[in-house]
Structure prediction request, 108 residues.
Amino acid sequence: MSDLQTVRDSLVAQAEALAKRVEKIEAHLRGVDRDTPDNWRERAQFLENDEVLEALDEHDLAQIGQIKAALARVDAGTYGECADCGEAIAVGRLKALPTTTTCIDCAS
Ligand SMILES: [Zn+2]
Prediction:
């Protein structure tokens, strides 16, 4: 059970780190204390940065969702079971991909 607790702790830590980053990105995107540049070239750069940040934000949110789902599986006692075939997912795979829901056979 201690392994599962370790997994749980690291998932919680990851989710917290991601949530902090999302908060920062969203504060930035909301444009707090931000001037829009007058120069069109700067403005284009500005918008491009926003797109990058938005993509990062979406990616982080998706990852938080996956981590939450993994935590729910830990709590339900189904963590580490393949969602497709019901077999145990190899520990090495879980360490590399803690939020995975399928074993290597079903994933390929
Ligand atoms: Zn499987």
In short: The pocket of zinc ion is lined by residues 82, 84-85, 87, 102-103, 105-106 (CB under 6 Å). Helices lie at 2-29, 40-76, 91-96, 104-107.
